[in-house]
Structure formats: structure tokens, C-alpha cells
């Protein structure tokens, strides 16, 4: 939108496809919505109830500028208990969600014109986050026939003297792929060889279906702690999207810089939400088991129904709670298929070209509706001419 009072760098900003498609929610009164990665159930009472008591007992003020000390210590304990990996309090900052953590990290490390490599299909906001930090996004395409794994030879070819960091998201949004240990090891070797930083977007760490075990953090791999920025959030792993709280782990000098940046845009993260995150981590064994089982059941149900649908193909679920569906046999674009699903079946999905060039020919289902809604949606889809 061009306007004399807008900064010129924002004149060519356009609504995201997510924004455009969620605007259709009021178009029909029976829409089944697979667009948002927002768990459709309320945060566990094991988190809410003690948080409510904390609020009544006075946890309603500014916290430490780096975050609630008790929470930061609990995060350090989490890495010791889960991965036998040592993280110090000074290496942790609490943020207002993963997006804030990632933006602050980019602001801390990027000079004008520095390049940040992201793998496509990618989480769509990466592009604008990098541009807002005055950086340049560089896309590494991944492909279905390669399991959407990162090809390290192509990765290395993209590195220039302006490359500052590589963002790695596993388990992945939107593909649901979990990068193999072999792939991650090769990426770390490239990063060390070229003296780069690696930003690990670990917000779906709970959701690994093949082994049922969380992936070892990249920062815990050999020689990576001093060059890894790990971004996490309560949103997905604890069904706490609306609490807007997360954290970042990085070398202490980066955390200090991120604190200076955060102090000037949010001051401190929400104090009550920080207490909720504390109780979430402490109660993770019980809270996460139910969440994990719900989403595992759903993603495999969607997988099963996709496999039964003409002109739809997908890979066996590996992680996260998304199903990335190949619809190329329809002969239509991602946007055309998404619009037909909306208009003919009243099923709302995201056309995957919004996740980068590698996403064209795919649509994404977020498995954030119940089992009955999943079956109803695919019953409707099965009546469409392009899928029957």
C-alpha cells in the first residue's frame, strides 16, 4: 500500500495468503478450517491453575530483563534432564513467542545486506523477518523426491562472503519432515567450515513420530554451542499459542545484545505468561503426553484419508502436525485447488506456494481440528470432481 505517511519500504507490502484465506472464515457457516497451526483445545489446567495462583500472589510486575529467573533456571534444568546438555542462565532470554525471539536474534546478528539462508518450503514470515533486519533471504530449494531433506552440496553453493547464518527448522513447518541425523551432521560441518551461525527453529520439538523421541538439539552437537541460536516457544509443545511466550538459547554475548534490543520493543515478556511457561515445563511429562497423542492420531488420520483420495499424495508423517499434500495430478495450481476446496467443499487449507517456490503444487493441512471434523472434511472432498 502506497501512502505518503508510510515508510517507502512498506509500499509494496501485501496481505499474506494466510491473512487472505482466514478472511474467508465468515464466508460460509460450515467451514472446516485446516489453515492455522493453533491447537484447538484449551491449555491444560495443570498449567492454568498454578499460574492463576501466581498472579494472585503478585507475579504481575516486570520481570528481570532477561526473563523470570526461576523460569530461566527451569529451562536450563530441562536441557540437563532431557539431553544431558549444559545451558547456563546467562545463555537464556525469555521472549514474547518464537517470532519475537527470531526477530531479536536477526536484529542482533545482521548487518545491512547480510544473507540468511532458509530452506524452502519455509515458514512464510521468515522472508519479512529477514528483510526487517535489513538482511537478504536466500532460498535453498528442497524437493519431494529427496524427502524434503536439505541437500548440503546445494547449500554450500549458496554460501557467499555475505552469508551470516542458516536457519534450520526440524520438525518442519510446512512439510512435517524431520531432518535425519545424517543431514543435520552435514549441515553443521558446512556451518563450521564457513564460520557461520545456525539458527535452530525448534518450536515443534515435541512432535517426532517415527521414534517418539525429541531430536537432540543442534546446539548440543559437536562444536555447535558457540555458533547456534536456538528458538523455542510454549505455543505448540504445550498448546499455549495465545500466551505469547518463548525463549532463545545462545552464547551469552548474543543474549545480552538481544536483551538490549528487546528492552526497546517489549521491555520484558509478559510476567504471567512466563509463570505459565514455568509450570508447563515442570509438568511436561503429563501435559505433553496427551497433546502428543492427540496430534499423532490426527496426522495419521489425515494421512490415511489423503492416501484414499484420488489426485492427492503425501509422505508418511514424521513430525510437527501438518500434512503436506501433493495435488499436481489435478493439473491445477495450489491456489486453484485451495479455492475449489473452499468453494465446493467448504474446507479451508493453505495453498503451499506461500511457503516458497518448492511449495507450488502442494496444499497444507494443519491437523488442528478433531477426528470427526477430519472425516467430515474428507467426505466432502471425496465428492469433488477433481478428487473423485
Explain this structure.
By secondary structure, this protein is α/β, with parallel strands linked by helices. The protein has two domains: 8-43 and 286-387, Aspartate Aminotransferase, domain 1; 45-283, Type I PLP-dependent aspartate aminotransferase-like (Major domain) (Aspartate Aminotransferase, domain 2, 3-Layer(aba) Sandwich). It has 13 helices and twelve strands. The chain has helices at residues 17-22, 45-56, 69-83, 98-109, 126-132, 152-157, 181-193, 234-237, 252-263, 271-282, 284-307, 334-345, 371-381; strands spanning 32-33, 92-95, 115-120, 136-141, 163-169, 197-201, 228-233, 246-249, 322-326, 347-348, 350-351, 362-366. The strands form three sheets. Strands 2-8-7-6-5-3-4 form a seven-stranded mixed β-sheet, sandwiched between helices. A three-stranded antiparallel β-sheet has the order 9-12-11. A two-stranded parallel ribbon has the order 1-10. Strand 3 (115-120), helix 5 and strand 4 (136-141) form a beta-alpha-beta unit. The chain is globular, with a radius of gyration of 21 Å. It starts with 16 loop residues before the first helix and ends in a 7-residue tail after the last helix.
Amino acid at each position: 500500500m502506497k501512502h505518503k505517511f508510510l515508510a517507502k519500504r512498506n509500499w509494496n507490502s501485501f496481505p499474506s495468503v494466510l491473512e487472505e484465506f482466514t478472511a474467508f472464515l465468515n464466508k460460509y457457516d460450515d467451514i472446516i478450517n485446516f489453515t492455522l497451526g493453533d491447537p484447538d483445545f484449551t491449555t491444560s489446567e495443570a498449567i492454568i491453575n498454578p499460574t492463576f495462583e501466581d498472579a494472585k500472589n503478585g507475579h504481575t510486575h516486570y520481570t528481570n530483563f532477561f526473563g523470570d529467573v526461576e523460569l530461566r533456571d527451569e529451562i536450563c534444568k530441562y536441557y540437563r534432564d532431557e539431553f544431558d546438555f549444559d545451558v547456563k542462565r546467562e545463555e537464556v532470554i525469555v521472549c514474547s513467542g518464537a517470532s519475537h525471539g527470531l526477530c531479536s536474534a536477526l536484529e542482533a546478528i545482521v548487518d545491512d545486506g547480510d544473507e540468511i539462508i532458509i530452506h524452502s518450503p519455509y515458514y512464510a514470515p521468515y522472508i519479512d523477518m529477514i528483510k526487517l533486519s535489513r538482511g537478504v533471504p536466500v532460498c535453498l530449494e528442497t524437493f519431494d523426491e529427496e524427502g524434503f531433506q536439505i541437500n548440503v552440496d546445494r547449500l554450500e553453493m549458496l554460501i557467499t562472503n555475505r552469508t551470516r547464518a542458516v536457519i534450520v527448522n526440524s520438525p518442519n513447518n510446512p512439510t512435517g519432515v524431520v531432518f535425519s541425523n545424517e543431514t543435520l551432521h552435514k549441515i553443521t560441518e558446512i556451518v563450521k567450515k564457513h564460520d557461520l551461525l545456525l539458527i535452530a527453529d525448534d518450536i515443534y520439538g515435541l512432535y517426532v513420530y517415527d521414534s517418539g523421541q525429541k531430536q537432540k538439539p543442534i546446539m548440543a552437537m559437536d562444536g555447535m554451542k558457540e555458533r547456534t541460536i536456538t528458538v523455542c516457544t510454549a505455543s505448540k509443545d504445550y498448546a499455549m499459542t495465545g500466551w505469547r511466550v518463548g525463549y532463545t538459547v545462545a552464547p551469552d554475548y548474543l543474549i545480552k545484545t538481544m536483551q538490549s534490543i528487546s528492552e526497546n520493543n517489549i521491555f520484558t515478556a509478559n510476567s504471567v505468561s512466563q509463570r505459565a511457561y514455568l509450570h508447563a515445563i515442570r509438568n511436561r511429562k503429563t501435559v505433553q503426553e496427551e497433546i502428543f497423542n492427540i496430534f499423532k492420531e490426527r496426522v495419521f488420520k489425515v494421512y490415511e484419508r489423503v492416501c484414499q483420495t484420488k489426485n492427492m499424495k503425501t509422505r508418511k508423517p514424521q513430525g510437527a502436525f501438518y500434512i503436506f499434500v501433493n495435488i499436481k495430478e489435478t493439473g491445477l495450481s495450489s491456489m486453484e485447488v485451495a479455492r475449489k476446496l473452499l468453494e465446493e467443499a467448504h474446507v479451508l487449507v493453505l495453498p503451499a506456494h506461500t511457503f516458497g517456490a518448492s511449495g507450488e503444487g502442494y496444499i497444507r493441512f494443519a491437523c488442528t481440528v478433531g477426528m470427526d471434523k477430519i472425516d467430515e472434511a474428507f467426505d466432502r472432498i471425496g465428492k469433488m470432481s477433481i478428487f473423485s
